[in-house]
Amino acid sequence: MKAKYFRFWLGQVLLGLLLSCIALLDPFGLSTSSDSASSQWINRITASLYPTAGQKEVVVVLIDDAYLMQNSTFWPLPYAQQSLLFKRLLAYKPKAVFVDLMYSHDHSAGDVMDGGQLLANVFERYQRQGIPLLLANSGNVRGHNGEANTLASLAGLGQPALVKWSDVGDQYPLAVDTALGVMETPAMGLYREYCDAGATCRELPEDAAAALAKPPVALRWGRELSPLQHLATSVAKCSVAGNSLFEQLLQAMFWKIRDSGQATCAYTLTLKASALEASSPGDRALLMRMLSDKLVLVGAQITSAGDLIQTPVHGLLPGVYLHAMALDNLISYGMHYQHEPAAVLGPWTWVDLAQLAFVILIVGGRARFKRRKNRLAKNLAGPFVWWSVVLVLLVGLGAGLWLMNITPANVLAIALLSLSIISDHITQLIKRGWRATMRWLSRVPHRFVSHCKGTQG
C-alpha cells in the first residue's frame, strides 16, 4: 500500500516538475508561442475598447499600385515623382512626417530630370517651414560589410528613424543601440514631435538614451475605422466583426476558420497617395482637415514589395501601420503603455512566477482529487469548485495585469491545463448520463407493451 502511495505521489511530483520546466525553461518555444497566442486573443477581444485619442492625430498616406498605374510610373518610385508627392503633402501643413522608404540606393543615375536634386529641394523646404521630417534608417554603417543605409545626400535633410531591429519579439522598442549610436524608432520620434508641439506628455524621455532604458511597447490594436475614413476612401469592403462581446469572443476563438482579423481595413485613418492630387476646392478643404497639424506616415502597399506584417485584429497590413499603431499607443497611453514586466529572478518575471504558482495549484488539485476519486464518486462538486477557484484567480490576475498595463499572462495555456482537474470527473458524469439513458431506454419497450395491453383490455 505504501509503495503504491509513494509511486502515485512520485508521478505527480514528476508531472509538476515537467510542467514547471515547460513554463520556465520554454523548450522548443512552446511557452512563448502560447504566450503570443494569449496576447493576440486578448487583443482581439479588447480591440473595441481601445481609446481613440491617437486616431485623431495619426494619418497614413499609402503609395499603392493604383497610384503607379495612374501616373504611368514604376516601383521603386522615381525621385522626381516622389518630389511631387511630398510637395503636395507639404501644402497641407502636417505637424511632422515620417517617410517609410529606404533611400539606400541612388536611382537618379542618368535621370535627365535630376530627380534626386528635386527630392532634396522638397525636403529642404520642409526644414525651412519647420516641419520635422523623419527618414527611415537601418542603423548600419553604409558600405560596411555590404550594409545599406540612407544616402548621405538625403540623410542630412531629415532626422533618422530606425526601422530595423531584433531581439524584442512582437514588441516595439522606443530606441535601439545601433552601430551608429542610440537611435529612436519612428513612433518615438513622432511622439516627441507631438509633445514638443504643445501636447501634455508626462514622463517623456529626455533623449534617445533615456528612451532606450524604457521597455518596448506591447502593442494594443484598435478595431473601429476612423469616422473620417469613408470620406477618404471607399469602405464598402471594410468588414468589421460584430459589436457584441459574444460575437467578438467567437471571432477570437474561431479565427482560423473565419477571417484572420476582426476588421479588414486598418484602424488608422488612411489616404491613398493619389488623393493628394485633388484639385477641386472641396476635396482640398477635406484634405486640409485630414492632414493639417497631423502626424503623417508615408508608406507603400505595392504587390511586389512584400512589406507586410501580421496583426492580431486586421490580418496582414503594410509595415507602415506597425509604426502608426505604436505611435497611437504612445499618444493614447503616454509612457504608461502596455509592456513586459521586469525580471525579478534571472530571466524570469513575477508574471512567470505567478504562472508557475498556477501550475502547482492545478497539479496539486488534480493529484488530490485523482487520489480520492473513489470516495468522491458520489460527490463531484469538489473538483468543480476547485476548478472554478482557479479560473476566478486567473481572471483576477488578467484584470490586474490589464490595469497595470502589463502584458497578459498565458491565460489560454493555464485555462486549458486547469481542465485536467475535472477531466476524470467529467468522464464520470458522462458515464453516469450514459448509464441512466440506457436504463431509461431499456424500460421503454416494457412500458410500450404494458400500454398496448392496457389499451386492448
Short description:
The protein has 457 residues and is an alpha/beta fold. The chain has helices at 2-25, 30-46, 65-70, 79-90, 115-128, 152-155, 186-196, 208-212, 229-232, 245-253, 281-291, 320-333, 350-371, 381-403, 411-418, 423-456; strands at 58-64, 96-99, 133-137, 159-162, 175-178, 181-184, 269-272, 295-301, 308-311, 315-318, 343-345, 348-349.
Topology as H/E string?
A: HHEHHEHEHEEEHHHHEHEEEHEEHHHH
- The chain-level structural class is alpha/beta
Spans where pLDDT lies below 50 across 5 or more residues: none
- Distance separating the two termini: 63 Å
State which percent range the strand residues make up: 5-15%
- If you average the pLDDT, what whole number results? 83
Trace the largest sheet across and list its strands: 4-3-2-8-1-7
User: How many strands, what sense, and barrel or not for the largest sheet?
Assistant: 6 strands, parallel
Number of strands: 12
**Helix content bin:** 40-55%
Q: Which word captures the global form?
A: elongated
Q: Helical element count?
A: 16
- C-alpha-based Rg, rounded: 29 Å
Descriptive notes:
The protein has 457 residues and is of the alpha/beta class. 48% of the residues lie in helices and 11% in strands. The strands form four sheets. It has a six-stranded parallel beta sheet, with helices on both faces. Strand 3, helix 6 and strand 4 form a beta-alpha-beta unit. The longest helix has 34 residues. It is elongated, with a radius of gyration of 29 Å. The termini are far apart. The relative contact order is 0.14.
